[in-house]
């Protein structure tokens, strides 16, 4: 690594970590603390429960601040270098703006990769723990007992062996309605079982009024058998089934893919999960496009001030997340494909950043 790169990165990472702390504080102060206060006043949450909520909320907040902090860091770093005429001196020495921006883009790429890994291995588990604490510890299991369209996955060595669907599930009565079971071998569907309902009795699930279809390797029906009553190939208790039903933000990328695949087999809507899956990559990668925007914007000397840089960052962030909110709603509603819903904000920001960089290079 050249001395120039080290010098620019040194100017970059100070504001970056400051930005992570500053933006995280804003999110915590405007959202997390307000919700925690509600749990204290409405449910009498204890100090231990409040502390757990605060800790579990941090990973999801911090990962969102990475792109914002990279934008602020690029603005402040190049703003300071420009205000002291160091950028002018570097250009006089024959160094192009593209070369000056290279270490910033490289650093933003590494931050994006780290953000993807951080979101994959830490955030879903923290979100699940946060929701569990709220629903079962603070609200004393006031989570709705009846759910629509549940999916139960039996996975072995990363492959789906059995999928169980229910159009409606009631934990209180231990009942499922509109049950479909799909069994797989080597990712090929080999058996389908349908039943009007299933009831938890004597530590096992019993299906009623159903039919079993054994399938050939080609997918055609080899044998059909009707039954009035049959033991269901599922050993999970009603309470465990409720706990297994995760929200999209509680799933890893692998779990999201499995959920999408499972729901598609039943021709169910997967828009929410597909948008969430795409955003697991698009939001972290926003660090790179924000670096493209922040680097040329920071060239004006008056932008070396942290307050000016922070204010300009807020404006760019507001525009970006306004577009993202709009496209996300369209994607979840099925108006546009999920990949476009997640990546349109980045594409727009990338075009804007490219134009700004080209202008600065002149």
Q: Secondary-structure blueprint of this entry?
A:
Layout: H1 3-43, H2 47-83, H3 86-92, H4 97-121, H5 123-138, E1 146-156, E2 159-170, E3 175-185, E4 188-201, E5 204-215, E6 221-231, H6 238-244, H7 253-265, H8 271-297, H9 306-332, H10 338-361
Antiparallel strand pairs: 1-2, 2-3, 3-4, 4-5, 5-6
Helix pairs in contact: 1-2, 1-4, 2-4, 2-5, 2-8, 2-9, 4-8, 7-8, 8-9, 8-10, 9-10
What are the main properties of this structure?
2 domains, six-stranded antiparallel β-sheet, lipopolysaccharide transport protein A fold
What is this entry, summarized?
By secondary structure, the protein is of the alpha+beta class. Helices cover 62% and strands 20% of the residues.
* Fraction of residues in H or I helices: 55-70%
* Neighbour order of strands in the largest sheet: 1-2-3-4-5-6
Query: How much β-strand is present in the residues?
Result: 15-25%
Largest sheet: 6 strands, antiparallel
Mean pLDDT: 87
SS field, number of helical segments: 10
The run of helices and strands is: HHHHHEEEEEEHHHHH
Q: In total, how many domains does the architecture comprise?
A: 2
Shape: elongated
Rg of Cα set: 26 Å
**Structural class designation:** alpha+beta
Main location: membrane
Pfam families: LptF_LptG (PF03739)
Protein name: Permease lptg/lptf-related
Subcellular location: Cell membrane
Describe this structure in words.
Keywords: Cell membrane, Coiled coil, Membrane, Transmembrane, Transmembrane helix. It is found in: Cell membrane. Its main location: membrane. It is a multi-pass membrane protein. The protein has 362 residues and is an alpha+beta fold. Helices cover 62% and strands 20% of the residues. The protein has 2 domains: 217 residues, no CATH class; 102 residues, lipopolysaccharide transport protein A fold. The protein is built from 10 helices and 6 strands; from the N terminus they run αααααββββββααααα. It has a 6-stranded antiparallel sheet, sandwiched between helices. A hairpin with a 2-residue loop joins strand 1 and strand 2. Helix 1 runs antiparallel to helix 2, helix 2 packs parallel to helix 8 and helix 4 runs antiparallel to helix 8. The protein starts with a helix and ends with a helix. The mean pLDDT is 87.
């Amino acid at each position: 690594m050249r001395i120039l790169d080290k010098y620019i990165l040194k100017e970059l990472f100070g504001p970056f970590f400051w930005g992570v702390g500053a933006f995280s504080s804003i999110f915590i102060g405007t959202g997390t603390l307000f919700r925690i206060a509600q749990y204290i006043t409405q449910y009498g949450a204890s100090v231990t429960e409040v502390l757990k909520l605060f800790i579990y909320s941090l990973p999801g907040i911090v990962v969102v601040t990475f792109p914002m902090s990279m934008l602020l860091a690029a603005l402040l770093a190049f703003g300071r270098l420009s205000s002291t005429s160091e950028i002018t001196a570097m250009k006089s020495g024959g160094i192009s703006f593209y070369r000056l921006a290279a270490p910033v883009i490289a650093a933003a790429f590494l931050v994006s990769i780290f953000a993807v890994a951080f979101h994959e291995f830490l955030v879903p588990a923290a979100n699940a723990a946060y929701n569990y604490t709220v629903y079962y510890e603070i609200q004393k299991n006031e989570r709705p007992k009846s759910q629509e369209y549940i999916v139960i996955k039996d996975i072995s060595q990363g492959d789906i062996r059995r999928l169980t669907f229910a159009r409606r599930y009631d934990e209180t009565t231990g009942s499922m309605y509109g049950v479909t079971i799909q069994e797989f071998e080597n990712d090929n569907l080999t058996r389908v079982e349908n039943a009007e309902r299933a009831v938890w009795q004597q530590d096992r699930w019993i299906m009623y009024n159903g039919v079993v279809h054994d399938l050939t390797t080609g997918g055609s029906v080899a044998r059909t058998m009707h039954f009035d009553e049959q033991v269901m190939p599922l050993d999970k208790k009603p309470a465990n089934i409720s706990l297994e039903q995760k929200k999209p933000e509680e799933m890893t990328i692998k779990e999201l893919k499995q959920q999408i695949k499972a729901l598609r087999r039943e021709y169910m809507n997967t828009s929410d999960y597909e948008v969430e899956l795409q955003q697991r990559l698009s939001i972290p990668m926003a660090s790179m496009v924000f670096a493209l925007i922040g680097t040329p914007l920071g060239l004006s000397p008056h932008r070396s001030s942290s307050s000016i840089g922070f204010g300009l960052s807020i404006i760019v962030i507001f525009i970006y997340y306004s577009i993202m909110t709009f496209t996300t709603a369209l994607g979840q509603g099925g108006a546009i494909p999920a990949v476009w819903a997640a990546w349109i904000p980045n594409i727009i920001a990338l075009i804007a950043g490219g134009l700004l960089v080209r202008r600065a290079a002149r």
